[in-house]
Amino acid sequence: MGRTSKDKRDVYYRLAKENGWRARSAFKLLQLDEEFQLFQGVKRAVDLCAAPGSWSQVLSQKVGGQSSGQVVAVDLQAMAPLAGVIQIQGDITQLSTAKEIIKHFEGCPADLVVCDGAPDVTGLHDVDEYMQAQLLLAALNIATHVLKLGGCFVAKIFRGRDVSLLYSQLRVFFSSVLCAKPKSSRNSSIEAFAVCRGYDPPEGFIPDLTRPLLDHSYDLDFNQLEGPTRIIVPFVTCGDLSAYDSDRSYPLDLEDGSEYRYTPPTQPPISPPYQEACKLKKNGQLAKEVFPQDCSINRIDKLPQPLTVPHCLTLLAPKVEDNEMNCS
Ligand SMILES: C[S@@+](CC[C@H](N)C(=O)[O-])C[C@H]1O[C@@H](n2cnc3c(N)ncnc32)[C@H](O)[C@@H]1O
């Protein structure tokens, strides 16, 4: 039941597996491209925060497929190999990672940098938004080193309270910045994508890898700009009206009347962060087994010490299904 119910909940999850994409996120990039023709004329692209690799798959088909096309993908996590994609396992906030990306381009600038990065969500909105913003700024910093003048930068953004400040920061480097929401991105999520075109850094700007988060005199440069520090940018929804609605549940029966058949994931994660929790669950060692009567969060004082991540996971998300953790 678990597998079927998850498929049913999310038509893009189902379609991704049927079409051979490693994750449903592939549709987000495809729908962004439909709207903005992101891949037109692109020969070199960087995919930041790429695992499990569906955006890299899209890029390798649209960019890497050309004879001189080149795609570099980076993630903290290991990613299964993909034809035509150079992979780096590293942290995009680290100087060493930025240097490695640059090395692969051998002096040739990239036409497109994309970043679908997401920190581990804590549920504390301010913290999550802050972390997401920092990741975006790290991606932007790397982009300032590899992107050609006039190039394009697309990054996941959380539309939180201070998002207008982020837009302003992006506007310092790009002639056009807008916020796009593909149909495959749930309306219930504050996720959207900043689409920044026309890379045009301020005169005299020197990219500085020693400050990966752009948390320095860049602010001074920024404050010297004329006009308000917070701007409103156009909001564009992408994916035509006939596209599936990601907030809806669709029936499993296929339109042609044929019976639905479960499709396994295209590429299961290599070494997911929840692996330890899966192992403990299989051995009956998760917190709910330890406290079968009551494992509510207000009994945290009664928990075994030290408190491990898997224990917290069980307490905070008791309904996580086996299939969602790929425990089978
Ligand atoms: C939503 S997933 C990306 C999905 C991917 N675009 C795809 O289509 O398969 C977010 C990724 O961001 C990565 N990430 C988060 N923080 C990172 C960091 N500091 N450096 C590199 N990758 C990071 C995570 O490891 C995770 O794989």
UniProtKB/TrEMBL annotation:
S-adenosyl-L-methionine binds at G53, W55, D75, D91, D116. Its EC number is 2.1.1.205. One of its GO terms (molecular function) is tRNA (guanosine(34)-2'-O)-methyltransferase activity. Belongs to the class I-like SAM-binding methyltransferase superfamily. RNA methyltransferase RlmE family. TRM7 subfamily. This is Putative tRNA (cytidine(32)/guanosine(34)-2'-O)-methyltransferase. Interacts with WDR6; the interaction is direct, and required for 2'-O-methylation of position 34 in substrate tRNAs. Keywords: Cytoplasm, Methyltransferase, S-adenosyl-L-methionine, Transferase, tRNA processing. The keyword Hydrolase does not apply. Residues 21-199 form the Ribosomal RNA methyltransferase FtsJ domain. The keyword Thylakoid does not apply. The active site is at K156. It is an enzyme of class 2 (transferase). One of its GO terms (cellular component) is nucleus. It catalyses: cytidine(32)/guanosine(34) in tRNA + 2 S-adenosyl-L-methionine = 2'-O-methylcytidine(32)/2'-O-methylguanosine(34) in tRNA + 2 S-adenosyl-L-homocysteine + 2 H(+). One of its GO terms (biological process) is cytoplasmic translation. It comes from the Eukaryota. InterPro entries: RNA_methyltr_E_TRM7 (IPR028590), RNA_methyltr_RlmE (IPR050082), RNA_MeTrfase_FtsJ_dom (IPR002877), rRNA-MeTfrase_E (IPR015507), SAM-dependent_MTases_sf (IPR029063). It comes from Peromyscus maniculatus bairdii (Prairie deer mouse). It is found in: Cytoplasm; Nucleus. Methylates the 2'-O-ribose of nucleotides at positions 32 and 34 of the tRNA anticodon loop of substrate tRNAs.
